[in-house]
Structures are given as structure tokens and as C-alpha cells.
Amino acid sequence: MTIRRCKRILTLFAILIAVLLAMQAYSRTLPATVSAPVSLGAVEYLGSLRTPADVKGKPSGFKRFVNKALGLDDDRRGMVMPHGVAVDARGRVLVADTRGQVVHMFDAAGRQYKQIHPPASDPFLSPIAVALDSQGRIYVTDSGRALIFVFRPDGKFLKTLGALGKNETLFKRCTGLAIDVSKDLLYVVDTTAMRVLVLTVDGKVVDRFGKPGDGPVEFNYPTHITVASDGSLWIVDSLNFRVQHLDASGKFISTFGGLGDRPGEFDKPKGIAVDHQGRIMVVEGRFDRVQTFDDKGQMVFSFGSTGSAPGEFFLPAGIALGQDGKIYVADSQNGRVEIFRLSTAIQEGR
């Protein structure tokens, strides 16, 4: 090979590197969400979370080239079947991925992503719900293991709650989870036991309530739960097709819902959240929508429809509200979390 040819090859290689570096710099500027909100009536669609690129920016051609050459992960890991969602005080979005057997942490402000999981010797089997205590510690119910896994705010594994012996736990099938951060009490839905257990953050049982049935404080496979600002509980009584409102001690206050497909009725109700105005948002899995009610159980508005386009759902599950007013809905079969905010008219009560 002549010296001239070698120089030509080196020059071309240098140009290629320069182009790839420019592509890398450009990719870092790509936004994590859509450039402008999309109006959907009661809400505005802001974007979605699916892969690390949604908060970190898309990998550049250079990075993909290097990762492929070195056999490294190209950071395109996506959610498989997201279920539970929570948002911490820093705005980081935590997503329990039931089929992926991991918790995803999306940090849009810090442009970071990480996966949270226990040690390989004590793995997740079916993570369902995720919640945070007053110290920012992360709690995850695992319905398959019948345990609650606890992690530090940085995602480092701490311990499990609920084990009584080698093959025995407090729960039959723990699913929904809510934490009263003013008291650091955990409210855990045990779906097949048809009850709610109240635990300290150390795992001590301080109360339990509920039994099979369709009367007050009776359940038919309850699934999800949330704590309102006044400490009262809103519980999705799934196969009774209703939501029950109880006080912090488990005493009955009210109920709303019923089986059907009309506004205010349910078929496969799932996630639940209460906003700062006391409105109750209930994810309706069968009909791919979120219905919102006032504290008397009267429907105020709904959003969502079946599909995979922005603002559409396919078997949605969990829901969480951020301190900034954003609404996060786990769109389980579409493998994403969609982000919304209330329209100006709804916010102003028009």
C-alpha cells in the first residue's frame, strides 16, 4: 500500500469520525417528549416513556458504531409490560415492569435512566406496584413472590418485607400499594385474601381490614389503592366493579361505580390516583380510558380510547400524578407510559 493511499484512507476515516461526532452532539439535543402538547379535550398529551432514549436522547451513530464494535448494550432497552407507576420528589418516574421483571427509573431532568432490581439470588418474579416513603425509599410489591422489595432512593436494594419463614409470607398475593408519607404507613392490597394490610416501613403489621363480599369494607379481588391528602383511602374493588372510600382506619365512607360500559361504570378497573383538587382518576382497563370523578362519585370527565397512537391505550394499568401536575398512565400492552396534563379549561374548572 502506497503512502498516498494510506493518507487518503486516514483522511476519510478522520472525516467519518467528525461526522459521527457531529451526529452524537445533535442527538443529545433531541427532546424527550413531543415538541408541543397535543390537545385531547380534557387533557393534553405531552409524550411517552418507553426506552432510555426518551430521557437520554437517541444514541448517536458513533455510539451505536462503538457499542456494536465492542459488543456493548446499545441502551435501547424498552419496557415490556409496565404496570405500576410512581413519581418521586425529584420528578423521577418509576415504573414496575411486570413481564420485564424490573423497575425502570426515568430521570428526564438529569437525562439519566437506570434499572432497579434485587440481587440475582432473590429476584423479582412479578413486580406490580411501586410507591415511595417520606425518605424517598422505593417499595415494590411482587405478586408472584408475595413480598415487598425495598430499595434506597438511588435504587440500591435494602431488604424485603412480609416474609414469615422459608416458604411463608404475610400475603397471599400482594398487589396494590400506597404509602401515607405523613405517617410512613404502608397500605397493601392482598388481592386473593380480599383485604388490606397496614404495615410500618419496617414491615410490622399494625392493622388489617376487609373480607370477601359485596357490602361495605368487603371485597371481590381488590387490586389498587391510593391515599388522599386527608389520609383517607380509595380502593379499587375490581370484581365488584366499584371504588370504595374508607377512612385511614378502614371504616366505610362511600362507594361508587358498577358493571357496565357507560360513563361512570367499570369493567376491569385498575389504577387509581387522587389529584390536589380531590378528583379521583380511575384507569379502566377493558375500555382503554381514564375516568375522573369528584369526591361524591360523580363523573367529571374521561380521556383515552383504544389504539397505539398518542393518547390511546391498550389495556392500561397504573396511574400516578407528579407534583408538577403531569399525569402518568402505564399503557401496558403498548409497552409505554404516556404523559398528560389537564387542559387549561379543566384546570380552571370551566
Question: Main sheet, how many strands, which sense, barrel?
Answer: 5 strands, antiparallel
Through-space gap between termini: 77 Å
What proportion of the residues is helical, as a percent range? 10-25%
User: What topology, given as strand order, has the largest sheet?
Assistant: 1-2-29-28-27
Instruction: Tell me the overall shape.
Output: globular
> What is the mean predicted local confidence, pLDDT?
89
Which structural category fits the helices and strands? mainly beta
The count of β-strands is 29
Proportion of strand residues: 35-45%
Number of helices: 4
Question: What attributes characterize this protein structure?
Answer:
single chain, 350 residues, mainly beta, five-stranded antiparallel beta sheet, 4 helices, 29 strands, 41% strand
Describe this structure in words.
A hairpin with a 4-residue loop joins strand 15 (195-200) and strand 16 (205-209). The protein has 350 residues and is mainly beta. The model is unreliable at 18-33 (pLDDT under 50). It contains 4 helices and 29 strands. The protein is globular. The chain has a 5-stranded antiparallel beta sheet with strand order 1-2-29-28-27. A 4-stranded antiparallel beta sheet has the order 3-4-5-6.
Describe, in short, the structure shown.
This protein has 350 residues and is mainly beta. The protein contains four helices and 29 strands.
